[in-house]
Design a protein that fits this description.
- The protein is α+β, with helices and mostly antiparallel strands.
- It has three helices and five strands.
- Helix 1 runs antiparallel to helix 3.
Length: 152
């Protein structure tokens, strides 16, 4: 994943990166989460860190970035909160206008997997993704906060 000059918390050295999951489709459930969260046995990682997930959506040809932003603005963010996902933030890369980057935080890997499982079968999400279809490539990276990070 290409880091943007401190738009990515990884590039700024605020997070340590855990193993990456394979690219996935946005509407389908992600792969099981690697070990992530408190008490992770990784050097320089805070023992109380939550599990962070950096997600990058690149809109494929024929789809609309504006529709993707509308879907997140009007529906997805509320559904994330409903299912216990903490939205850290959303970013629009200024040199990649077909891309949306965001970070979610979870208590741990198990909480992340449970949240996504519930999200993916939520009738409101099923309706939203059907009515507001956007073809995207999804890349994600699982992260834990370093022991010197201001965000844990």
């Amino acid at each position: 994943m290409k880091a943007l000059a401190c738009l990515s918390l990884v590039a700024c050295g605020i997070f340590a990166v855990a193993p990456s999951a394979a690219a996935q489709t946005a509407a389908r459930g992600p792969q099981p989460t690697p070990p992530c969260g408190p008490n992770l046995a990784v050097k320089n990682v805070d023992k109380q860190s939550r599990c962070f997930e950096l997600r990058t959506y690149t809109v494929r040809e024929g789809s609309s970035i504006d529709l993707l932003h509308s879907r997140f603005r009007d529906h997805t963010t509320a559904l994330f909160k409903k299912h216990g996902m903490t939205v850290v933030g959303y970013w629009q890369p200024v040199a990649k206008l077909d891309t949306l980057i965001y970070i979610l935080a979870y208590q741990d890997a198990a909480a992340r997997d449970a949240a996504w499982a519930a999200f993916n079968v939520d009738p409101e999400w099923v309706k939203t993704r059907t009515e507001m279809q956007v073809n995207v490539q999804v890349d994600n990276v699982f992260m834990a906060a370093t022991d010197y990070s201001p965000i844990k």
